[in-house]
Amino acid sequence: MSTTTIRIDHAALPEPFDPADPDAAAEAIEAALRAGGIAAEASDVISHLKIELPTAQLATASALLAGLRLI
What we know:
single chain; 3 strands
């Protein structure tokens, strides 16, 4: 299985995500993706959030992330 990684800078987080609390933002993003049926893992990596997901689910994840104004 191929994996895709999406990186989002803390400074680029839109409301309601709090750039000062990237762990909470990562948890909320992961929960939203999983609720959408996407087997994703999101984490804070010092300067950005890292989202890993199966490449086969990239189109669905992109639509969901666009809806959250993250991409």
